[in-house]
Amino acid sequence: MTGRPRRGPVRVAGTRAQARRTSAQAGHGSRTTPHRTYSATGLRRANGKAANGSTRSRFASVRIILVVLLSIAGLQLVKVQAFDAEALSARAERQRTTPIDIPAQRGSIMDRNGTKLAFSVENRTLSVNLRLMRKTWDEFAQQHPEKGQNFETRSAAAARFIAQKLPDKTTEAELLAKFRKPDNFTFLVDDVEPSIAEEITDGENFPEISVEKRAKREYPGGTLAANVVGVAKWQMEDPDVSKHNLHGLAGLEATWDNELAGTPGRRLVDTEQGGDVVIPGTERDIQPATAGSDLELTLDADLQYDLQSKLSDYVAKSRAKGGSAVIMDAKTGEVYALANDRTYDPNDLAKATPDQMNNRAVTTPFEPGSVNKIVTAVAAIEHGIATPESVLPVPGALRVADHTVRDAWTHGTQNFTTAGIFGKSSNVGTLLLAQKLGEEPFADMLKKFGLGQRTGIGLPGESPGSVPPRNQWSGTTFGNLPIGQGLSMTVVQMAGMYQAIANGGLRVEPRVVRAKVNPDGTRVEQPAPKTTQVTTPETAKTVLDMLRATVQKGKGQNSGTAPAAALEGYQISGKTGTGQQIDPKTKAYSDSLYNITFAGVLPADNPRFVVGIHLDAPDTTLPAGHSAGPLFHDVASYLAQRYQLPLSKEPSPVVPLVLS
Hints:
The radius of gyration is 46 Å and the shape is elongated. By secondary structure, the protein is of the alpha+beta class. The protein starts with 15 loop residues before the first helix and ends with a strand. The longest helix is centred in the N-terminal third of the chain and has 43 residues, at 40-82. It folds into three domains: 11-83; 98-297, Penicillin-binding protein 2a (Domain 2), CATH 3.90.1310; 301-659, DD-peptidase/beta-lactamase superfamily (Beta-lactamase). Helix content is 35%, strand content 22%. The strands form seven sheets. Strands 2, 3, 4, 5, 10, 18 and 19 form a seven-stranded mixed β-sheet that branches. Strands 12-11-23-22-21 form a five-stranded antiparallel β-sheet, sandwiched between helices. The model is unreliable at 1-46 and 237-243 (pLDDT under 50). Residues 102-277 form the Penicillin-binding protein dimerisation domain. InterPro entries: Beta-lactam/transpept, Beta-lactam/transpept-like, PBP_dimer, PBP_dimer_sf, PCN-bd_Tpept.
C-alpha cells in the first residue's frame, strides 16, 4: 500500500538492550520487558513520579534528623542554663583566676622589759610579667611604627627610671638583664619603700610593673641575742604565681614560726590564659590576714649585751678557740642572758657562716672537768659520807684500775677538809669520797642533776650531752666521771646543776620564752617548767656554803682555786673546772688542750643569779687562759649593779682547807 504514512502516536519498539539503554538514560533502574513499548511522554511521566517519591522520602529523613538534633541541642542548652550554669561559671573562673596568700604581719620578739629584738616593717617587691610586656609593646610597635617604641625601648626606659629611684638597691644594667630574661615572669627589686613603689608603678610611669606587699624583718640590735632569737626571711614557694611567705630559719624564729607567722589572708588575681603569670592590676582581696603573736622572752637585752661583750673580749684575751656563757635566775630557771663569742647579724644573713649561726651554748657539749665535782659533793653530804669540816688524808696520786690520777699540783699526803677538797679542787680527794659513796648512789645523783638529758630550754638543736650507760662502766669509768672526764654537758646543763643547789635542791627546767602575747593583747604565760628535787634543802645549803671556799683568799694553802672571782661586798659560791680535751690527732686526752669552766652563784647567802662559763681551748699559760674566775667577777659586778642586789650581811668566813 502506497501513499503518505498515517499520523498518530509513534510506537517505539525495541529490543531488550534498547529498553535497558532507554532506562539508563532516564536515570532510573526500572526493569523493562521485551514485550513492553513506551511513548516518550509516558516514559517521562513514569520517571518523574519515581524521582519525586524518592526526593520526598529523602527530605523527610533529613527533617527527622534535624528535629532530633535540634531537640538534643535544646535539651543540652536548657541543662547548661538551668542546671550547670553555676558550676560551669565557677570552673571558668578557676581557669582564669588564681588565689594568692596575703602575708600576715609577723609578731615581734621582745625581751623581758619590752625591748624589741625582732619586728617587721612593711615594704614592697617589684616584679614584671615579661610575657605580657613583650606582647603588649611588640603589638604597639606594629600598630604605631612611627613612635619607635617596642619592648626593648620600653624596658630600657623602665630600667633607667627604677635605677634612678632605687640607686642603693639596684643598677640599670642589673634591671636590663632581668628584663631580657626569656622567662615569663621575674622579680626586679626587693625591700622597696611603699611610697617609691607606688611612684614607679602608677599609671603615668610603668603600670606593667607589679607590686607585691611584703614585710621586712628588722633586728635592731644586730648581733644582740642573734643565736637565741634567730632569723626569718622570705622564702619563694611557687615562683610561677609569685607566692611568698616569711618563715623562721633559725632560733626562736624557727621554733615559734607558726605562732609568730599568724594566718595569711587570701586574694584573687587574674592570670594569663594557659599560664600562671599574674596580670597586673587584677588583684582583689577576699579575706584579710590575721597577725601573728608576739613573744616575750626571759632575756634582759642590756644584760645580754654586757655578757656578749665581756665574753668576746675574754675569749680574745685568753686566745681561746671560742666560748659560751649563760646567766640564769637561781629560783625560776629563767635565762637572763645566753651568749656565744662568735655570732652573726641577722640583718646581713649573707655574711653569716654556719659556725656563727650555731648556738653552741646549747648544741655543743664538752667535758667539763672539776665543775662536775658538785655531784660527788652533794651525794657525799646527803649520804653522810662527810661534812664540810671532816678531814680526809689525801695523797698526791691515786691508782684507779689501769691508770693513775693526780692532783693539779704536786704534794704528798695531806689532811684536807671536805671544803678543802672542793675549794682546792683535789682530784684524788674527790675520788676517795666517791669510792666511799659507791657507784650506784653516784649514778643516781648524775641522773637527778639531769646529765645526759636535754634541759628543755626550748631552743632548737639542744644536745643532751652524754653519760656512759651504767651497764657499760669499766674499771676506769668511776675514776673519770667524779672529776668531770668521760661525760659531757652544755654550758646550760652545767649552770642548771648549780641552779639546783642555789634553789634549795630543786632543779627547775630552764626557759627563754616567758609568754605569748596574742594579736588582741591577751597574754598567755608559758606552762610552769618541770622540776626535779635533786637533794634536800639542808644538803643544798651545806654544799652552797662549802663552795664559798673556792673564791676565798687565805694564808698558805688555804686559798681556793679562784679568789679572782670574788666580788667585794657579796658572798660568792662557785667551782672551777679544767677538763682535758681529746687531741684530734692522737685521739687521746691532750696535755695542752683544755676546757676551762666556771660556775658561780651570786649572792651565796641569798641566791639570785647563777652564771656558767665555758672557754674552748684557751692558752693556759696566760692568766686569762688559766681560769674563767676573772670573767665571772666582771659579769657578777654588772649583775649586782643592774639589779641593785643588796650587799651580803657579812663576808664569807675563811675556813681551813688543808691542815698542816
